[in-house]
Amino acid sequence: MKRPLGRRELLADAGGLVLCTLAGQELLRDRGTDVEELAAGVEIPPKVRAAQAEGLDPATSRTMLAAAGGPAREYWIRAEPIKSWDVVPNGRDAMMGKKVKGKTTFAAFGYRAYSANFAEALGPASIPGPLIEAEVGDTVIVHFQNKLGAPVTIHPHGITYSDDMDGAYKGKFTDPGGFVQKNETFDYVWEAVEGTQGFWVYHDHGPMDPLPLYKGLFGPLLIRDPSEPRPTAEFFCGFHSFLPVTTGIDRAFYCINGRAYAGNTPTCKSKVGDDVAFYVYALDDDFHTFHIHGHRWRTEGDGRVVDNVPLGPGDSLTARFTEDNPGRWFYHCHVFSHLHEGMNGWYLVD
Amino acid sequence: MKRPLGRRELLADAGGLVLCTLAGQELLRDRGTDVEELAAGVEIPPKVRAAQAEGLDPATSRTMLAAAGGPAREYWIRAEPIKSWDVVPNGRDAMMGKKVKGKTTFAAFGYRAYSANFAEALGPASIPGPLIEAEVGDTVIVHFQNKLGAPVTIHPHGITYSDDMDGAYKGKFTDPGGFVQKNETFDYVWEAVEGTQGFWVYHDHGPMDPLPLYKGLFGPLLIRDPSEPRPTAEFFCGFHSFLPVTTGIDRAFYCINGRAYAGNTPTCKSKVGDDVAFYVYALDDDFHTFHIHGHRWRTEGDGRVVDNVPLGPGDSLTARFTEDNPGRWFYHCHVFSHLHEGMNGWYLVD
Amino acid sequence: MKRPLGRRELLADAGGLVLCTLAGQELLRDRGTDVEELAAGVEIPPKVRAAQAEGLDPATSRTMLAAAGGPAREYWIRAEPIKSWDVVPNGRDAMMGKKVKGKTTFAAFGYRAYSANFAEALGPASIPGPLIEAEVGDTVIVHFQNKLGAPVTIHPHGITYSDDMDGAYKGKFTDPGGFVQKNETFDYVWEAVEGTQGFWVYHDHGPMDPLPLYKGLFGPLLIRDPSEPRPTAEFFCGFHSFLPVTTGIDRAFYCINGRAYAGNTPTCKSKVGDDVAFYVYALDDDFHTFHIHGHRWRTEGDGRVVDNVPLGPGDSLTARFTEDNPGRWFYHCHVFSHLHEGMNGWYLVD
Questions:
Q1: ipTM greater than 0.95, yes or no?
Q2: Which chain B residues have a beta carbon less than 8 Å from that of A300?
Q3: What residues of B are in contact with residue C326 (Cβ under 8 Å)?
Q4: Cα A216 to Cα A86: distance, rounded to the nearest angstrom
């Protein structure tokens, strides 16, 4: 049974060295991959090709129009290259009081919010993308335009939509919304019906998934219940990693909102008496936990008192509490190696 | 303190290259192991040897007889070799619209259901094994016969049993039900008392565990509450992996019910208005999540609305909802590398 | 884009070979690191230096005094070296009925309980540290003294405290309680206010975290609600690992309370009719599950019936049930490789 280990075997499935196979190519976690180059080999799915050939505007060929009955919330969002995203803009790991050595910038992807009809950018392309927000009863329309060299999409969690609006690549069954090519536009129509209220995520689910997501194509989606009081201080914290496979940098960064290390990750600020909500989600290959020093909250649903909760990829949660403890606190992932590779931030209470 | 890294150190604990030590041998995740050959070196535990020497039928030497008071549900199940199990029978990854290259068959193990007294097979040996089903109040009797060259067992979760009926190898304390040798039979008696209703799993827990399980020896166990309405559409989805250590194939497959990639994994079908239940479980070395596109459900117990939930090894859950969204949907594990190595399937709603 | 893989890349982020960077040095999971040597390069934070320069007793310079109003519970705890901690004192893996080969001892760290004013040790330094116990309304004062060659701390979960009492290193913002040097003492004052009742953990969170924790600096913290009945049998089970990085031993041990393999891990004993509580927590880089054979319990909060639950790093839970099933049972982590590397124990019911 025994034979010498080849390098392929040494690498294969070594808890992550092989990330997965994509577009016929084996991806290694630790080695840079050019997503746009890899995308060049992907065939256009038949329904997408047919729609193009007939000159259909995919945005109007959708089978379902919104039926939620409430007002429409419209977003104009572009997927754009970010020439040089700095994971550690201030160059420091404030938790450890150290400089962060080595390269911290790479060519990323970002979702970018625009004003109506893409008239003007509302800010730079960012990681994560803009908050998509609605109230129960709303129809959400996302006018999505792709400026990247690979087909990408927007796939939302939690909200209601027909299957051609799910933004998922499905091989030969792919609808136009699951394969939005460079310079094309697709209008996603989703409905925030009763029962969808809560905190969710959205992310690319196109044919190159998870690489575009791992370069930055994800964001928060919040559906508010208008009959419930709004938090007076709220924070959106996306837990994810930048791996060598998409950064080309010879180390992994464990990040919150595209940045690593306290002072670069969001510094969340509140004051005593605030009705605080942390909206937390995870979107990478790992499991994380969300922990805040000096605070506890009741979990949604069952009301158990906790100060640390697990999060798998695609999970989202709300940690809500009345602030009563001033000071300088950490919030972080309690997986120690993630904490020390950057997955921590300041929470400052006046 | 510094010294050069040896290959042993390079491999050791590299997030999985060393799986574990078993029967005195170090197992590598990435390298085939012959379970039956390895089992040859395992000693017969004293209580098992004594029962054999005295000519006792282990099935009648049990210390406890069923006391649940309800009717008995009898199952006849054999553990059998599966000469060539194909993980990807149609050869395709429908999510990515690609052929799956390389070897996809291996010599697996399966539980196989028989009619009374093993008169005739009710179907082929399968991965996972047959559904074991009961109602609250039932006594479940599983007549278990082993046709494999390694001692194996059936260990159930959730249901009630005395400790000699737990199907677990316990070193020198092992009861006959924890070490069922080739061509031997053991009758497991379990009781579906009040409080055990719900969805659970069963799996091998013999002396070679987890290798026989990793070759296919696991299955679903459902205890129904007769006072509750039955779902009108129900699906059993076991999330697990086939690793090189038990397949000898130079890659890992991330599977649902023994198959990888949509079109090979279960294609679940329902219609609008159905009372749908997905019974989902995980049984390998990894954590997974269960996600369905376009759907939400309330978690058991606390009723939180979710569309993605984490599952550790041995966990089982029911995702139940009234179907209201027709179309072609994916259900999948949201760990991206698992998703792309096959852990996804179609959910089709009319 | 392609270039040959260097050894650094081969190792980097291979699912754990690189644990993290600490004090400017890259730590490998698989290679011993001398914590005290590494600590020598860490600068004393400005607030700690200032307090020393002014001759302040950090224990009295705290900004907050306890306001819980209830009686004070005082603990005297020292962090001490444990010259030779044996992970497998009886040398056997009782689950597999095998001797455990190779080295099982290493130079560990432990928290050690003393009588008032450190007059005398109440037992040896242990892994985990002593139970810190309080009732709702109590003020907990932990007089903490460090006898190790690296600055360490005590950081509690769940209980209330001001930010200078959180025992966390915070770079230049570090308070004296977040950097307790060799031979120094710090008095932590924490308050078990209403809402903090439950089971929690404490652990080192100083500048060398997680290495001192990975050598043994963690323990259980229980806040009882005096209006609730006490369990008649209770067990504290810390799930963690000893990795080569802190042991220098060429393998990982998956442990419960500092020991690996049934017979070395806690053998928990109860009798039929007992009101049983298992207090379980996880504190390493991995996710675990807690499973007991032959038993079920209702989760805290939502009351779902389970026999296996996931635990992330920093999580803690109570599994409570009325004992009705005599026999010899296993409790264990259901991640199979952890189970087989030692994370299992006996539960004996009379």
A1: no
A2: 302, 304
A3: 163
A4: 12
Name the burial class of residue A107, with classes exposed (0-12), middle (13-18) and buried (19+) by CB atoms within 10 angstroms of its CB: middle
Q: Give the integer Cα–Cα distance in Å for B259 and A214.
A: 27
Give how far A119 is from chain C: nearest CA, Å.
37
Given a contact cutoff of 8 angstroms between Cβ atoms, the answer to whether A296 and C196 are in contact is: yes
User: Is the pTM above the cut of 0.80?
Assistant: yes
User: Is the Cα torsion angle C20, C23, C24, C28 positive or negative in sign?
Assistant: negative
**Does residue A94 belong to the interface with chain C, where contact is any CB pair within 8 Å?**
yes
**CA atoms of B278 and B299, how far apart (whole Å):** 12
Phi-psi region of C198 (alpha: psi -120 to 50; beta: other; left: phi over 0): left
Among B residues 137-166, those touching chain C with beta carbons less than 8 Å apart? 155, 157-158, 160-164, 166
Question: How far is A27 from C218, CA to CA, in rounded Å?
Answer: 39
Contacting residues of A for B246, CB less than 8 Å apart = none
Cα torsion A139, A142, A143, A145 to 10°: value is: -170
Q: Encode chain C (350 residues) as per-residue pLDDT tens digits.
A: 333 333 334 444 344 467 888 888 888 877 788 898 899 889 999 999 998 888 766 554 444 444 445 689 999 999 999 999 999 999 999 999 999 999 999 999 999 999 999 999 999 999 999 999 999 999 999 999 999 999 999 999 999 999 999 999 999 999 999 999 999 999 999 999 999 999 999 999 999 999 999 999 999 999 999 999 999 999 999 999 999 999 999 999 999 999 999 999 999 999 999 999 999 999 999 999 999 999 999 998 778 999 999 999 999 999 999 999 999 999 999 999 999 999 999 999 99
Residue pair C289/C335 in contact by the 8 Å Cβ criterion: yes
